[in-house]
Backbone:
């Protein structure tokens, strides 16, 4: 178990910057998810922690010791790849036992530990199989067992669930979480799936273009995104973003005027779909239903309004509106997010009032 | 609704009739399938005749030709018996269900064909042409032949066989070791001039080696490797390498990075990750390149002809050349027998490694 520190860690390939200088502290036993779209540098970050890539600048510390020059094989890190990366020519038992070969573990001790960890992830029945003879879920478990068998001080998961089908993903999510709690191993999960990140991790690190945009709990990232990117990346269905202009205590967004204080200039107004509502036509924003998507517990409407097309999420599964219906749009004001257009930062001082809603 | 109802009613009798027709359709289907299979078989038999016939002819000559003469009667007689037998077995396989009866029928065909064959060509078979296997001076001892050659004109065929084996084997070993390491490095490491190196490999492969024969001769002369098997091994291995490196690179490219990184994180050094994780994934490629290199060395003629003089250094290709050249008037029986002896290892190698060789082209394309 280890406390991981990144201090101004950066990585570039010749001129291409993959990770900009980054600071990050991960506490001992913590489960942290690095969330971002593909190409944001999250996997590079993971490989630097694993010791596969050497950082171009900065220091990586495990429990206070700088490990930049420590080779991957000596870092005592376990890793699970998206592809599982099982050794195709080895049986499950040999796959799981592979890391022990290099630690000088005696044969009988190694065999015992392989069985132990196989039981932990429920693959003890499969020890004689080859990877090609197993389902994706089973391969995933074997990969997890192989990462855990050497009792790593840091567990790295690189998109471990994205090759699984939806139901299995749900099970594995809970199972990995349970295992991590039980073993208390410091864990870093890299994913582009926000649900994975927010459900499994204690803290979420949101990355984009090689930079950390925000670090926080899932709830903080959702309710109080620091940046426009975080607001737009997190949340499904995605947030509605509208360009507006603030001046003289008013915020104009198209034909909508809001009372606003503490802001001026070009801004972006963010409204989560669940903070919008639909009422009878003639009240609120004049709208027309474009599409209806029943999601089970909720129903998502796409509504054409004078402000552009907006996503509206209503609780309940019944279709209150049909495609083509006219409807009025309403806004719950306390949940509006205001971002400065040029810096893309959230303006915390802003306060809005819907008093003058059209 | 009114528009759709009549059509539904019309559809009902049609579907009723359709049900009655299923059996007829099934019969037509299996008939068509049988005809198709029959045509395919006939086609395959036809095109394989010109491929197999020369080998078969060589074999029949080697076991039937008398000194001085060539006759094709044995060939035609045996073909006249074997082709119908093979066709009969094929149709039997196609038209009957598997089971004990089919087995009996097949055994019957084999027995009939075998007996007819023994009766038709049995008296003509003999092993005189194979005397070269025991007796280096077989030419002088051939009955009815004037001794057109002096004693010990030929080395033992086993010397030539051993030389060929050594040439092909050592050459293959060299090619495999270098191609594996070079292919891995080219696939995994980035270095200055990597792209141009790869292009150079292709150009070298396309380069006609024959144009180098005089420089190579001089080079061998100056380095003292002329008239040594070592020299020829080095030359052929060098000429083989560009293509082999390229193919091996293709196979390494197909091994995912992930498992190599995984091995490193699991505690392996770069060398052990290569040996224990990457290398086993390219065994098929290694086998394919190995077989091709071996056969290339085994069949080599031009360079051994140019660079080797001493008859103790003869390879099989030189041996068969001198056998056909040095006997006053070609003795086709002996040439055919030596030919069968020469070609047998290649054919065996191909037969056993066939399925791996097919994969080589796949691995190559991936590169």
Residues:
């Amino acid at each position: 178990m280890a406390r991981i520190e990144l201090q101004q860690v950066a990585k570039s390939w010749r001129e291409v910057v993959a990770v900009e200088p980054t600071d990050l502290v991960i506490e001992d036993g913590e489960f942290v998810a690095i969330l971002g779209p593909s190409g944001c540098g999250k996997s590079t970050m993971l490989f630097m922690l694993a010791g596969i890539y050497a950082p171009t600048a900065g220091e990586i510390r495990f429990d206070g010791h700088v490990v930049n020059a420590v080779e991957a094989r000596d870092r005592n890190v376990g890793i699970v790849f998206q592809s599982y990366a099982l050794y195709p020519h080895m049986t499950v038992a040999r796959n799981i036992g592979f890391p022990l070969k290099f630690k000088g573990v005696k044969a009988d001790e190694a065999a015992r530990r392989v069985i132990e960890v196989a039981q932990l992830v429920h693959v003890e029945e499969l020890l004689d199989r080859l990877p090609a003879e197993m389902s994706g879920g089973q391969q995933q478990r074997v990969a997890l067992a192989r990462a855990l068998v050497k009792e790593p001080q840091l567990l790295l998961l690189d998109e471990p669930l994205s090759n699984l089908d939806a139901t299995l993903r749900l099970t594995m999510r809970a199972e990995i979480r349970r295992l991590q709690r039980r073993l208390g191993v410091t864990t870093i999960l890299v994913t582009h799936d926000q649900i994975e990140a927010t459900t499994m991790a204690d803290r979420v690190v949101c990355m984009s273009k090689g930079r950390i945009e925000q670090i926080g709990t899932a709830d903080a990232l959702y309710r109080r995104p620091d940046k426009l990117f975080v607001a737009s990346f997190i949340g499904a269905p995605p947030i509605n973003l509208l360009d507006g202009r603030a001046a003289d205590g008013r915020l104009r967004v198209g034909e909508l005027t809001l009372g606003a204080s503490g802001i001026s200039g070009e801004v972006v107004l963010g409204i989560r779909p669940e903070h919008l509502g639909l009422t009878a036509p003639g009240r609120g924003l004049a709208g027309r239903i474009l599409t209806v998507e029943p999601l089970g517990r909720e129903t998502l409407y796409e509504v054409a309004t004078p402000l552009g097309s907006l996503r509206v999420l209503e609780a309940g599964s019944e279709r209150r509106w049909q495609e083509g219906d006219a409807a009025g749009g309403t806004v719950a004001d306390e949940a509006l997010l205001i971002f400065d257009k040029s810096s893309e930062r959230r303006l915390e001082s802003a306060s809005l009032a819907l008093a003058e809603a059209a | 609704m009114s528009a759709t109802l009549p059509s539904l009613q019309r559809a009902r009798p049609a579907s009723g009739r359709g049900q009655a027709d299923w059996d007829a359709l099934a019969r037509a289907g299996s008939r068509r399938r049988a005809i198709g299979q029959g045509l395919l078989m006939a086609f395959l038999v036809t095109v394989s005749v010109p491929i197999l016939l020369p080998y078969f002819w060589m074999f029949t000559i080697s076991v039937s030709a008398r000194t001085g003469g060539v006759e094709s009667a044995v060939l035609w007689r045996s073909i006249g018996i074997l082709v119908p037998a093979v066709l009969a077995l094929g149709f039997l396989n196609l038209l009957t269900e598997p089971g004990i009866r089919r087995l009996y029928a097949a055994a019957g065909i084999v027995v009939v064909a075998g007996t007819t064959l023994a009766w038709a060509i049995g008296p003509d078979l003999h092993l005189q042409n194979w005397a070269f296997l025991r007796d280096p001076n077989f030419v002088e001892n051939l009955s009815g032949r004037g001794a057109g050659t002096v004693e010990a004109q030929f080395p033992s065929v086993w010397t030539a066989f051993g030389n060929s084996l050594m040439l092909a084997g050592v050459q293959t070993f060299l090619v495999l070791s270098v191609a594996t390491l070079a292919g891995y490095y080219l696939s995994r490491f980035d270095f200055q001039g990597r792209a141009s190196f790869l292009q150079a490999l292709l150009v070298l492969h396309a380069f006609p080696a024959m144009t180098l024969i005089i420089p190579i001769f001089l080079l061998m002369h100056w380095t003292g490797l002329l008239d040594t098997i070592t020299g020829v091994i080095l030359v052929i291995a060098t000429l083989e390498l560009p293509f082999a490196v390229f193919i091996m690179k293709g196979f390494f490219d197909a091994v995912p990075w992930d498992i190599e990184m995984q091995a490193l994180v699991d505690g392996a050094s770069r060398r052990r990750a290569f040996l224990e994780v990457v290398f086993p994934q390219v065994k098929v490629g290694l086998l394919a390149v190995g077989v091709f290199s071996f056969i290339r060395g085994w069949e080599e003629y031009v360079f051994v002809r140019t660079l080797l003089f001493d008859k103790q250094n003869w390879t099989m290709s030189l041996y068969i050349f001198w056998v056909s050249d040095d006997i006053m008037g070609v003795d086709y029986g002996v040439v055919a027998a030596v030919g069968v002896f020469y070609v047998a290892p290649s054919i065996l190698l191909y037969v056993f490694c066939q399925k791996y060789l097919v994969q080589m082209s796949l691995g190559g394309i991936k590169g």
User: Anything to note?
Assistant: Residues 1-16, 363-367 of chain B have pLDDT under 50 and may be disordered. The radius of gyration of chain B is 30 Å. The CA atoms of residues 148 and 328 of chain B lie 6 Å apart.
